[in-house]
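Hi L., both proteins are below.
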Amino acid sequence: MRYYIRTRVHDRQKMAATADVVAMDEGETASQETAQESPASPSVELLGTELARIPKKWYEFGQKMGLETTQLHLIETEKGKEAEYYFRETLELLAGEGREGDVTWESVVRAVTDIGETELAEQLATKYGVEREETGEEAGEEGGEDGGSKVPELKVQKEEIRALLTKKLEKGDTWYLIDVRWMKQWKKYTGYETWDQSYSGEQSYFPGPLDTSNLFAGTESHALKEHLMEELDYSLVPESAWNKLVVWYGVSDTSRPVARTVVEYGLYMKHCKVEVYLLNFKLSLHPKLSETVTKSFSRADTVAELEKELRHTFNVEEKTVCRVWHRYMSHTYELLSDSNQTLQDAGLYNMQTIVLECQKEDGSWPRATTQASYQATHSTRSQDSITGSTSSSAQSTSSYRSGGGGSYWSGSYSQQPTHPGLCGLSNLGNTCFMNSALQCLSNTEPLTEYFTGGAYKKHINKKNPLGMQGQVAETYGTLLDDMWSGNSCSTCSPRQFKTVVGRFAPQFSGYQQQDSHELLAFLLDGLHEDLNLVLKKPYVDMSVKTEGREEKDIAEESWYKYLQRNQSVVVKVFQGQLKSTLVCPQCSMLSKTFDPFMYLSLPLPVKKTRKMEVIVVYADPNKPMVKYSLIVPKRGTISHLKTEVSEQTEIPDDMMVVVDVYNSRFHRVYDNKENISHILDRDDIYVYELSHQVGDKDWVHVPIYHRELVVKKVNYGYSYTQRYHNLFGLPTIIRVPRNTSTYDTVYQAVLARCSREV
């Protein structure tokens, strides 16, 4: 059995907080049930008594009014006249604390109405001359779905949200990011999962206002943390679900809504995806290229929308003729001429510099340009680009072709020719996985000689239904020409290559981290099919008779049949045969096969330990908390973690508890047998020293939460005052006798423990 009481702690000089006290055994997540407190005997023994549950609707009232558990119990059991007396007493108490403006008879009547006690609300309104507003069900009936402030029952909440979460992604829709921990807390509170109903309606699992602060890089930053992962860091909900959750739970003051658009990826294999990370561009106005303003854009935005934002940022009039350039190398810029092209199709990448150039009054342009001839799938390099300098001795290299136009200009600089192949690849934004695969293949001599010599051009197979219309082979060949020309700069941009790959393999079209081997496998398969010399693949029976034959003959026949459908430079350079032998355990029959392969997995030694950081909270409130770095077995248990902490702190491992703290509450209490792998690197793990051993039958360890009353004015078609409690600070733990504790002993223990924060 768990026990629950609440007591209000006041230090008018320093703090006013509420402690939520729960008896907790190791391995349990903190949970709360309401203890009945006798109003006539404040020192009654609270622990060990039978507990009385207060209906959820009165909890809702309490959250609105900031009431205590005992007072709520009085309202439930003593309605009417006693309730009126209580309300008057409560108002006097709140007024005495200097909050007379927060709680009025109008707010009391409104709160009572919202929880469905319309009869009591009518009595109070009549007696105290309060004009009732249409709230709750009354406003909902006339105002529709969002017409009232009445929060639906938990069953209704979860069914409404469940239906909305099944919505398919559609291009242009808006979805919101929610902290995955808040979402898990809400699911526990509502009993969302059919197999997890044990905490449904428990006030200790009330998720509180929506909170997205943990998703941002800093408290003042508008940028998301890097490398956030769905269902590990955040959950996605459609706009309609977000709006409902905001009405029901509100949004914390430290949070900002994270709205993202659904965009469509891929040219031939289209699929929709929520664009979690936006493109950040450095905008500048020519000629002040060093003065930039960073703005965010969706990949679904068009070049026209980009130009509109540039004009707005630099106060350029609509009648002024302008053109937009993007920089992809130190001194090389490229024109974005197709205004209807999306930023994704234009191949733009994160933190790229975008330049707005305005035409002069005489109709000329500040920068000289040249037209680069290009084909739809090729990059083009020229030695004759025009620079902004009038010096005839200045040398420069040209750009890759533009996604929507062939114009470019390059800054004046000198560059000595480099050794062929000695060329880096620009990181377009989390594309190191792609660059490593390209550099690997670029230094595979037989394949590179085949491409740089131009032999691939006569082998391109554009009619192969399994290929990519020759586009992957063409863009890869063009990239190798640039890398091995010896005339390039020290780096090249594989932007056009990435754009083409993204059309046929949408998983590589974004700027998320990907697996390098997966990209390498796709590229080799794509090159093989684009360069397959077999224009019309015949049907081939791949079965080979093996009985009584030499292995060499079996292998040669298998390879011959394979070549009837597959002949390319990739087969010649990268593919071979792998012999597999099977023996029947019953009849000892032997079967040998020779299968083609292109990759062999190399087992690497796995690191058996991991580094973890934990914060130790000592039982002595005068001792500061200390962060420790631990080396623990990867496949170890919480018991191993405790042993390591014990060695560094000399705290006995049976006098500590390991918890995950989130949003100022114990999100999870770990059992000794749980695997350490359940703890993620981003989790905030605390180890609390206990005063007595875990499992001591004479003592109970009680978690303490700190909370404050938040009062907000809300307007959802009508205005009302929303009151709820926010948890703050670090939770802590006290110990009290299991069978002899009184209200006073618990109260004093709470005060003593809170002295750390006061």
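That was the first. Here is the second:
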Amino acid sequence: MARPERLPQLFSPSLRPPGVGDGEALSSLQALDADTFAFCCTSGRLGLVDTRQKWAPSETAGPGGGRWCAEVRGEAPGPGPSIAGLRSDGRLCLLDPRDLCRPVSARQCPVSTPSPDPELLRVTWAPGLDHCLAVSGFDGTVQVHDVTSWDGTQGRTDPVFTHRGHVFLDGDGAGTAPLVTTHTWHPRKPRTLLSAASDASLHVWDWVDLRTPC
């Protein structure tokens, strides 16, 4: 497994982010185009950087508590929340890149316990659907959420679909349920995902929202 990168190692000394210690690890690093990228620290600190400019990122300090990961939505249809941040206790925040200091909305995903391995936390936007994302890393499931109706009200969010295939055990069901280690969306099939678990299982599966299509 690759060693986690740390912020100061990504830049020359003249570009080192102010206030960032040598021990601040990255949980997410994403190239947005040839000149800009986004980062998320395990502390929850988010930033957008243009490499053509002197270090002056648009960023926000971490909210504190738990460990975080994040993803920026590719090819967003317009202004609005395009960054999703996920905390190890199931907290899911949507942010507008024009104002990273104030989440547009924040909801609690239905997880029974915090992630047993925060390094496996993953939140991903559906590339072929406008307002859907998936989260994993808490147990043997992958949750799909539709954020169309989300607003600033903080509360609980229920997934429109939960993939439980990795939870099914062989034999009499004895033993420890596997943990989903990663998932990803199929690039050309909007409702198809792939997921892998700690028992070496790999699933390719479709999902259907029986209430309100994304």
